[in-house]
Amino acid sequence: MSRTFTLEEATAQLPRLREILMEMRKKKPRVDQLRQEIMAMTRKATGNGHLVSQDVRDRQKEAQELVERLNELGEAIKEIGCELKGVEEGLIDFPSEREGRTVYLCWKLGEDAISHWHELDTGFGGRQPL
């Protein structure tokens, strides 16, 4: 962990994190759908002796572009200094100091503010109010 956040510093990052997470949440289901389609089409093609079609290649290209964008967005979160814990949940942890030890300030997309924290090893289930 390279940096720690005060509550104010973490809160200042929420607008950008909301943008990033909303984009990730829009793109991830399409990647999952494309992967399923590619697997089904490839299975069918190899099962009947055909080569992989242009449709499969087009889907692979789209999936690759989406994955690259998702990776860029994930890197943007890392550059901020916080940790993405779940795209679907929109869960972000901010390393912070509390009573002389490192803990996480915990925020979930849809929450207006950062209002919880948890120990490094307890995760979302161990959230406690600030």
The share of residues in extended strands comes to: 15-25%
Number of domains: 1
Physical arrangement of strands within the biggest beta sheet: 1-2-3-4-5
Helix-residue proportion: 40-55%
Main β-sheet description: 5 strands, antiparallel
Distance between the termini: 21 Å
Rounded Rg: 19 Å
Overall mean pLDDT stands at 92
List unreliable stretches of 5+ residues.
Answer: none
Query: Based on helices, strands and strand pairing, what is the structural class?
Result: alpha+beta
Provide a count of the helices.
Answer: 3
Q: Number of DSSP strands?
A: 5
Q: What are the secondary-structure elements, in order, as H or E?
A: HHHEEEEE
Shape: elongated
List the helices and strands and how they pair.
Blueprint: H1 7-12, H2 14-47, H3 54-80, E1 83-86, E2 91-98, E3 101-108, E4 116-118, E5 128-129
Antiparallel strand pairs: 1-2, 2-3, 3-4, 4-5
Helix pairs in contact: 2-3
In short:
With 130 residues, this protein is an alpha+beta fold. The protein has helices at residues 7-12, 14-47, 54-80, and strands at 83-86, 91-98, 101-108, 116-118, 128-129. It has 3 helices and 5 strands.
Provide structural commentary.
The protein is of the alpha+beta class and 130 residues long. It has one domain. The chain is 52% helix and 19% strand. The chain has helices spanning 7-12, 14-47, 54-80; strands at 83-86, 91-98, 101-108, 116-118, 128-129. A 5-stranded antiparallel β-sheet has the order 1-2-3-4-5. It is elongated.
